[in-house]
Specification:
2% strand; disordered C terminus; three-stranded mixed sheet; 74% helix; single chain; Growth Hormone, Chain: A; 19 helices; two-stranded parallel ribbon; globular; mainly alpha
């Protein structure tokens, strides 16, 4: 397979965007619509809020917890194979859920099996968009991720209608057939090789630090069995470290902690918006319509924020755009308990939906800016993995608070403060990094603009983590060591 000098920013890339768009409809939109089944499950099985909320929690948790598995299959087997396998598993989980006789049955089929299927599809499809686009990356992600909003807008009233016509069992059976479209999406994911991609296992043998004797042994073995060469212990260790060396980057660590609090705050809203609306006297159709509004405005947030952050004036400030969107969603959650009728809940759905679409679009963009395109698939797997525990814990905790206090106020306040803390943490980290970089540059300017390092016989590499590459110049001569600042 020929290596491309860089992402093509078009061509088959738009088919990749279309495939990712359908993947987000079949995964994230379907997951959101599970909240419409909440009241049906609660009434049919006669359980409280906390126990019923575990269904949605396990779906989200399994999807994010197994995201690294999806990245692993995509990197070492094929993105197409991973997504097709995920589609089959997700469909099987929904179909088996239509025959459920207890909540525990739903935990396993709708929660674990369907969530695992979604995991194998979601992160690889998103990573493929990042490989095909660079200049228009945010716009491409905006279009691709808008599938979540469009899917929610269309599926929310459709699912409510299916429940009324065929009961919740029939609705789950039909959804099981619908998510088989993930197999079609997988077929669209044509792989691409970029020159900046990290070296693969066979290329490991060409590295200078591998002893000659070891190279010869491995090459001799490869004549008899290519598998021995490809899957030798040394190659696997090298590739595994190279795929996940971004975990030690300070910027990624801060982003990871911020994601934990953001994920805790955003999940309960999609579970409890419909039950909350019903509790304040809104009809079933109006409650489903609120989810539809949230979904369609989510689309606008995806596309417009993606387009705006691709502009030259905002391209360097994507982190701040991301944290602003997360903070606004947190504020929306804080005000939700005082909105107790349908006319007031409509503006909430507009505002929350817009900024939800905005920051969801920017998650892969910000991750790519931190770790680079070559590590994007593995990094997204880790980022979505970090969503798992908050997604698992937050809806049942919110349900426990509802059962204990008899009100949704405490649950929504906790969500709001969690998202605001996530935004504030990332903001302070970015400001601290900027101040530190400015300080280091000022010190460099005081002692001389450039740093010349002379060594005996070779170039000496100087570690300047907080300085731009242009601030350090390396020179080499064959004689005496000399240093000049």
């Amino acid at each position: 397979q020929a290596r491309h000098p860089g992402p093509p920013d078009g061509g088959w890339g738009w088919m990749i965007v279309a495939g990712c768009f359908l993947v987000t409809i079949c995964t994230r939109a379907v997951t959101r619509c599970i909240s419409i089944f909440f009241v049906e499950f609660q009434a049919y099985f006669g359980q409280d809020y906390a126990r019923t909320a575990w269904i949605h929690s396990i779906v989200d948790c399994a999807t994010m917890l197994c995201a690294p598995l999806g990245s692993l299959i995509s990197n070492h087997v094929s993105c197409q194979v991973g997504i097709m396998l995920g589609g089959l598993l997700a469909s099987a989980g929904l179909i088996l859920s239509s025959f459920a006789t207890s909540l525990e049955h739903l935990y396993l089929s709708l929660g674990v099996l369907t969530g695992l299927g979604f995991a194998l599809c979601y992160s690889p499809a998103i990573a493929m968009v990042g490989k095909y686009f660079n200049k228009r990356k945010a716009l491409a992600y905006g279009i691709a991720m808008s599938g979540s909003g469009i899917g929610t807008f269309i599926l929310a009233p459709v699912v409510q209608l299916l429940i009324e016509q065929f009961s919740w069992r029939g609705a789950l059976l039909i959804l099981g057939g619908f998510v088989l479209n993930l197999c079609v999406c997988g077929a669209l994911m044509r792989p691409i090789a970029l020159k900046e991609d990290r070296k693969t296992a066979p290329e490991f043998l060409e590295q200078d630090y591998v002893p000659k004797a070891q190279k010869q042994d491995l090459k001799r073995m490869s004549v008899c069995s290519p598998l021995i060469k490809a899957w030798s212990h040394e190659c696997l260790c090298y590739c595994s470290w190279k795929e996940y060396d971004f975990l030690l980057m300070p910027g990624f660590m801060v982003l990871a902690v911020s994601v934990l609090f953001m994920a805790y705050g955003c999940s309960p809203l999609f579970v409890y918006l419909v039950p909350y609306a019903l509790s304040v006297g809104v009809s079933h159709h109006q409650a489903a319509f609120l989810m539809s509004i949230l979904g369609v405005i989510d689309i606008i947030g995806n596309v417009t924020f993606g387009w705006l952050t691709d502009r030259r004036c905002l391209k360097k400030h994507r982190h701040f755009c991301y944290l602003f969107a997360v903070g606004m969603d947190g504020l929306c959650c804080l005000f939700l308990p005082v909105l107790q009728n349908f006319p007031l809940l409509v503006p909430f759905s507009f505002t929350f939906g817009y900024f939800d679409g905005a920051y969801v679009t920017l998650i892969p963009v910000v991750t790519a800016d931190v770790v680079g395109t070559s590590s994007l698939s593995s990094a997204l797997g880790v980022v979505y993995f970090l969503h798992a525990i908050p997604y698992l814990v937050s809806p049942p905790v919110a349900g426990w608070l509802v059962d204990t206090t008899g009100s949704y106020t405490a649950s929504f306040l906790l969500c709001g403060f969690s998202m605001i803390f996530s935004s504030t943490l990332l903001c302070f980290a970015r400001l601290a990094k900027k101040i530190k970089r400015t300080h280091l540059r000022s010190l460099t300017n005081d002692t001389g603009t450039k740093q010349h390092i002379w060594t005996n016989g070779a170039i000496a590499y100087s570690v300047a983590a907080e300085l731009d590459q242009k601030d350090v110049e390396f020179l080499a001569v064959d004689t005496n060591s000399y240093s000049n600042r």
